[in-house]
Amino acid sequence: GQNIDQPTEMTATEGAIVQINCTYQTSGFNGLFWYQQHAGEAPTFLSYNVLDGLEEKGRFSSFLSRSKGYSYLLLKELQMKDSASYLCAPMDSNYQLIWGAGTKLIIKP
Amino acid sequence: DTAVSQTPKYLVTQMGNDKSIKCEQNLGHDTMYWYKQDSKKFLKIMFSYNNKELIINETVPNRFSPKSPDKAHLNLHINSLELGDSAVYFCASSQDMRVTDTQYFGPGTRLTVL
């Protein structure tokens, strides 16, 4: 079966660094997306990884290990506006995104 | 300019009624999707259309019927609404079905069935 595992909730302090982990099992693999979703809003695209390694984009970086079925999203210099849910979504062999329930990140001053 | 728009944003209705949600994208994308996000926040794909043709049709009750009059529009019609249909419904679009395409989401429609 297909499965996504992320922590339900994490708390971090403004200015700090946080790493959100995701493990996945899918039927085939065509890359992995991370989306951000603020409460009551639509998901918005953050990153896409298809090869192993780290992709850096400003304060956000995403890592992928295909052999381990593992990815993480690293957020640096946290700001209050980063409080949101972060959704890990691998793409299966049918090019269909498999969504987890997301990790709710709470930023404290 | 709104890239992916949905109407209405909120929809409250009685059980048994029939309702429609409209979606339009002005990005020139070929592929559109409907997702359901339940109270546990799981996003579940319902339908996917590519150039007005149905590509993905997950296990969804046949009370749900998508209609794509053209590739910029994908509407969702729901017959005989049930309490379990209460959720947020998101429309999304992507350039096409290629693997690297990002999906752009509409603002969502919060459906409440009483």
Distance between the termini of chain A: 40 Å
Strand content of chain B: over 45%
What's the order of the H and E elements of chain B?
EEEEEEEEEEE
Distance between the termini of chain B: 34 Å
Outline the biggest β-sheet of chain A. 5 strands, antiparallel
Quaternary state reads heterodimer
The tally of strands of chain A reads 10
Radius of gyration of chain A: 13 Å
If helices are DSSP runs of H or I spanning 4 or more residues, what is the number of helices of chain B?
0
Describe the structure.
The complex is a heterodimer of chains A (109) and B (114). Chain A is mostly beta strands and 109 residues long. Helix content of chain A is 0%, strand content 53%. Chain A contains no helices and ten strands. Chain A has strands spanning 3-5, 9-13, 18-25, 32-37, 44-49, 53-57, 60-65, 70-75, 84-90, 103-108. Chain A has a five-stranded antiparallel sheet with strand order 1-3-8-7-6, with no helix packed on it. Chain A has a five-stranded mixed sheet with strand order 2-10-9-4-5, with no helix packed on it. The termini of chain A are far apart. The model of chain A has no long low-confidence stretch (mean pLDDT 94). Chain B is mostly beta strands and 114 residues long. In chain B, 0% of the residues lie in helices and 55% in strands. Chain B contains no helices and eleven strands. In chain B, the strands form two sheets. In chain B, strands 2, 4, 5, 6, 9, 10 and 11 form a seven-stranded mixed sheet that branches. Chain B has a four-stranded antiparallel sheet with strand order 1-3-8-7, with no helix packed on it. The A-B interface holds A 30-31, 33, 40-45, 48, 50, 85, 87, 89, 91, 94-97, 99-102 and B 4, 40-45, 48, 56, 90, 97-100, 102-108.
